[in-house]
């Protein structure tokens, strides 16, 4: 069983790292880029029977800084072989 | 138009940051966690008409270190896609 937690800066918070990537891409000749924002994500391998509430608790209390960040959680059953590694 | 690029360490590469989070969660009393792996993702806002090939080129040539990392790209018209990994 696997959970995917995405953590990103709130839209209202400046993302200098993303801006730097955006400018760099332009200066390197990659055209058509309007904006870049960078975030992080966590692939969490869970014991069977884990609930979405558990994952959300971890995301909220540990993985996210609520002052400047927001998160989304997705829980998936382990349908793929690599999930059993 | 938006693209979502996920970059993660290859499965064969050790992820000490993920391991630390995994151990920390256990020591903090969060049970049922088997493994954690951390990656990063980029939300790229594109001019209309951008192609999946363009995004893949940027992901491969700029955003990913091919020695230790791998990436996936998702192109969407608008809004945020469901996690597909």
Q: How does the SSE layout of this entry go?
A:
The structure is a homodimer of 85-residue chains.
Chain A: E1 2-9, H1 16-27, E2 33-46, H2 52-63, E3 69-76
Antiparallel strand pairs in A: 1-2, 1-3
Can you walk through the features of this model?
The structure is a homodimer of 85-residue chains. Chain A has one domain (2-84): 2-Layer Sandwich (Mth169, Chain: A). The first copy, chain A, has a 3-stranded antiparallel sheet with strand order 2-1-3. The first copy, chain A, is an alpha+beta fold and 85 residues long. The first copy, chain A, is elongated and about 50 Å long. Helix content of chain A is 28%, strand content 35%. The A-B interface holds A 4, 6, 8, 18, 21, 24-25, 28, 30-47, 49-50, 54, 57-58, 62-63, 72, 74, 76, 82, 85 and B 6, 8, 11, 18, 21, 24-25, 28, 30-47, 49-50, 54, 57-58, 62-63, 80, 82-83, 85.
Do you know the CATH architecture of chain A? 2-Layer Sandwich
Which class of chain A in CATH terms? Answer: Alpha Beta
Estimate the global geometry of chain A from the Cα principal axes: elongated
Topology order of chain A in helix (H) and strand (E) letters? EHEHE
Estimate the mean pLDDT confidence of chain A: 90
When the domains of chain A are counted, the total is 1
**Greatest interface and its participating residue counts:** A-B, 38 and 37 residues
| Oligomeric state, counting identical vs distinct chains | homodimer
* Helix-residue proportion of chain A: 25-40%
Strand order of the largest sheet of chain A: 2-1-3
Low-confidence stretches of chain A: 79-85
| End-to-end Cα distance of chain A | 11 Å
How many E-type strands of chain A? 3
Strand content of chain A: 35-45%
* Major sheet description of chain A: 3 strands, antiparallel
CATH superfamily of chain A: Phosphoribosylformylglycinamidine synthase subunit PurS
Estimated radius of gyration of chain A:
16 Å
Structural class of chain A: alpha+beta
CATH topology of chain A: Mth169, Chain: A
| Number of alpha- plus pi-helical segments of chain A | 2
